[in-house]
Queue: 3 jobs
Job 1
Amino acid sequence: MADEREGLIAYLDQQRDAFVSVSFGLTEEQLRQAPTAGRLSLGGLIKHVTTCERGWTERMAAAPDAPPPAERSVGDEKQAWGDDFRVKDDDSLGSLLANLAAVGDRTRDVLQRADLDAPVPVPRDAPWFPKDIDAWSVRWVALHIIEELARHAGHADIVRESIDGATMYELIAGREGWPETDWLKPWRPAD
């Protein structure tokens, strides 16, 4: 990587790619399973990180201004909170991954052109945003997206292992066609 910008973009791509690997070989039914004590499914996690990245990317694209107002009212947003974790009947693994890839393309495009020091106004529509800070930099927001993707990729690892015992290196090996070794067997669907 030649510079910080390329590093941010590459690391975002790497963290986003974890969702492609962790979902490798899933059935549509498995995509919707929530096998742990919580309610997280792999499809819901993919959907959530896509929504999250899209929102932060649009904030970076608008910097130093706030992004255009949401299509829904704050009340409607509150009522719909958590919907991005729910996999609907018309969602599929292919459509969820395609949406994630499209958001990645948009993020990459924004970061290639953005002033990394430009201020991004702190949202004021949710209680978890600090009240004592007016703006973060584009750089900070990019790092926050990396953190968000990495946090949920870890959740996805646990959910996937709970579904069928598959772990990340086995899944990457299966996805990329690595040869089997004495210490790593690429994941393959059960017969």
Job 2
Amino acid sequence: MNRRQLIALVPGLVPLSASAAAAAAPVKVDASTLFNDPEAPVGGNSQGDVTIIAFLDYNCPFCKKSAPDLDRIVSTDGKIRLIYKDWPILTEASIYGAQVALGAKYQGQYETAHRALMAIPGRNIDKPTKLAAVKNTGIDMARLQADINSHADAITGLLQRNLALAEALKLEGTPIYLIGPFRFSTLDYDGFAQAVSDARAHKPG
């Protein structure tokens, strides 16, 4: 996946292509938005000593491949703070998946929806299939749609910020995992474990 071949099609957001990004003024990475965006879903241990920031797309097969191992390392380690950065860059259906997952956050079910969407096999997954997968988890679908509608501005704003961060960081595709000072793409469980160990070793003191 190459950023030059992708356009983010977030409703309410001007599509940003590589040429448009190049013409714009350089964007600085906002550490507060990266680590402490109040709208970004957070999993794992909120007081963890290592943070993993995951840029993901629900139509990305490599995101899906890594997802079970990411869940496993967060669960088994117990001291990892996981920040989800929904970055729907592949298709319009990717945007819908992000909206559904972020809408579920308002009933405390972001990770439930996230895991259901990541578990759908294949790529280019359409909207009905995504919706059916989430419905099968038992999430309140009427409330979900109501939350997507009533929090549309907040959801779009978060996706805009995620896109801006990805552009500022010059990310080229999904998945991307920022672990301490390190950047990775697809990792398996052992890869995550080593990256977390390296991040802890890198910390001063």
Job 3
Amino acid sequence: MNAIPEALNALPLIGILFQFLGYVAANVTFMSQTTVAVAVPVALAALCGAVCERSGVVNIGLEGIMLTAAFVGWLAGVFAVGMLGHGDPLPVFGITPPLLIGLAAAIGIGMLVSLLHAWLSISARVDQIIGGTIINIGAVGITGYLYSLVANQSLNGAGSFKALAVPKEVADFPLIGWLLNAVLAQGPIGILTIFLVIFLQIMLFRSRWGLRTRAAGEHPRAAETVGIDVIRLRYFNVVMAGALAALAGAWLSMEHGNRFDANMTAGRGFIGLAAMIVGRWTPLGAFGAALLFASATALSASLTISPPSGDLGNLTNQVPGEFWEALPYIITIVVLAGLIGRSIAPAADGVPYERESAT
């Protein structure tokens, strides 16, 4: 029975590929769960970008929104613990009052920063790329400075949201158990992300709000002539989408861990923009692209924790660890390069809209 696999393993190139597929199959539970978890902040950033750009506003400031929300959410949790104590966590997700206060603070500051971007882009009609870049640079500087003021102090954080415990019967279900485990074995923000992807996909393409949003991003003047308040709609969408990027930041400091590090977003906002483009400005497509990029991180983690044996192990041992860390960014560049000229943004994306005078 083992003659065929052994023969395939002996082939130079096909053998390595066959060993790799066997390694993935053996570690599919860990890799799939890690892929979904790592994809959460990227997908949320991509959803934020998709809603904004479908409205006609380019949001390069995703990285800054995420970083600000991560810092404010974590710090608000620290203050809440100081005033209220940790409290008794709920049996589901380990939710405590300080965690909820930190999450609310993260979402609130994310929407405020998005309001600033909306004002710069819509009312002040500043170049949207420059406006978003200013937000990114400002977020790195401000959060880095404020964190340096408290970094040496012994702070008692609010803890972190816990992943959902998946019953063994579900995880061991034939054929799809690994998939059910990957989806369900997440914290509240991770599971909410999956529902948000489906919800926004339906809303953007099957609702009145979605039709108006797409009209504002494709032909705002025509949308205005049929009674759509383009400026108000853009403000609403940019600010509300900021809550999605804020959730991504909260995931980093309140679900993935219980800490804040300077510049901890590490480019995830920009990868989210790439996922949005690869996904052709659709929530489902963006989530699929986020999973693709996250799978490289999951593979790197799996190779570190459970190294393969045989020829495949010898090959991976010769690859520098820095390569695996850079792999998600390499895949992002390669995929984007292959889509140049084939992924078309909304026609009015990034174009400031000015109402015609009544005279």
